[in-house]
Design brief:
The protein is globular. β4 (33-39) and β5 (45-52) form a beta hairpin. The chain has 124 residues and is an all-beta fold. It has strands at residues 2-7, 10-13, 18-26, 33-39, 45-52, 58-60, 68-73, 78-83, 92-99, 113-114, 118-123.
């Protein structure tokens, strides 16, 4: 079993930055990768960024490329998401997720562990 706890959300003005963190605990040895997803009010949950545990694969949604950076601190089993140049459309609940299997990084059913989420609000 793996527990995921997100932190770092908040309210920021457009153009600002936030850094999200996701601490993983429990049996993390066999995880294949971790990712960030988000869900805006009235919309479905979408994939934002992914990092394999080995570090050889990093993926981003087109909407955040060039603005967001995902990183993984293996020693602390912590996934980070540095978000720069935030826009109002980035407003959402952000979730951390982890998976053991392989497949498309954005495929939500592959992720068997989920955090509770952290709210990000971007004001104009």
């Amino acid at each position: 079993q793996v527990q995921l706890v997100e932190s770092g959300g908040g309210s920021v003005q457009a153009g600002g930055s936030l850094r999200l963190s996701c601490a993983a605990s429990g049996v993390t040895d066999n995880l294949a990768g971790m990712a960030w997803f988000r869900q805006a009010p009235g919309k479905g949950r979408e994939a934002v960024a992914y990092r394999s545990m080995s570090g050889d694969s990093t993926m981003y949604a087109n909407s955040v490329k060039g603005r967001f950076t995902v990183s993984l601190d293996n020693t602390k089993n912590t996934l980070h998401l540095q978000m720069n140049d935030l826009k109002s459309e980035d407003t959402a609940m952000y979730y951390c997720a982890a998976r053991r299997g392989w497949g498309n990084w954005y495929d939500q059913p592959l992720y068997i562990y989920w955090g509770q989420g952290t709210q990000v609000t971007v004001t104009s």
